[in-house]
C-alpha cells in the first residue's frame, strides 16, 4: 500500500482501523490467479493473529495451502471530496476531486482449520466480539444446539499469522486548514459515510 508520510499512522492506529472496519478482504494467490474473500475478523489481543471462517462451499479455502501468504485489506471509513468544498478554490482554481479514507493492510500467512472444537471456539469468540455492548444481545446458546452443529459443519476456519500491518489515514491533512475545516463541517451534516469521516477528521483516529 502506498502511504505518503503525511498520511501514515502508527501501528496502534492501524489496528484500530481493522477493529473499526470489522470485516475486510483476504486476498491470496492461487493456481487460478488472485482470489479474495470478504470476511469478518477477530484480532488476537497481541495482534499476532486474525481468525475467521468461510463457507465450506466457498472454493477460496481449498485454493490456498497452509502457510500461503495473504493480504488483508480493511477500510474503516471513506467518502468523496468535491473541490467545491474548498474555500481556497476562490483564490486558486487549481483543485481536483479526491477521496478521504482510513485503511489498513495486514500481511500474513493463512492456515485452514477444520476441527469442530476450533470452529466452535472461533464462532463463539467472533459472536461475543461483535455482540458486545448490544441490547438485547444474542448468544450462541440462544439457537438450538442441533442447528448450531449443522451450521458449524457448513463452515471452515481460517487463521492468519500476522507478519506486518500498515495503516493510512487520508483526511485532508494536505489541504490548507480552512479547506480541511470546511470539508469536515460539510461532512458533519452529510451522509452517514461523510459523518463518519468528519468525526475522524476532527478527532483523528
Task: Please explain how this structure is put together.
By secondary structure, the protein is an alpha+beta fold. It is 29% helix and 35% strand. A seven-stranded antiparallel beta sheet has the order 2-1-5-6-7-4-3. The chain is elongated and about 65 Å long. The two termini are 19 Å apart.
Briefly note the CATH topology name.
Pnp Oxidase, Chain A
**Multimer state:** single chain
**Total number of beta strands:** 7
Give helix % range.
25-40%
* Series of secondary-structure elements, N-terminal to C-terminal: HEEEEEEHHEHH
Q: How would you classify the helix and strand content by structural class?
A: alpha+beta
**Strand order of the biggest β-sheet:** 2-1-5-6-7-4-3
CA-CA gap between termini: 19 Å
| β-sheet strand percentage | 25-35%
* Number of helical segments with 4 or more residues: 5
What is the CATH architecture assignment? Roll
Largest sheet: 7 strands, antiparallel
Secondary structure topology:
Layout: H1 11-21, E1 23-30, E2 33-40, E3 42-43, E4 49-55, E5 68-81, E6 98-113, H2 116-131, H3 145-153, E7 155-170, H4 177-187, H5 192-203
Antiparallel strand pairs: 1-2, 1-5, 3-4, 4-7, 5-6, 6-7
Helix pairs in contact: 4-5
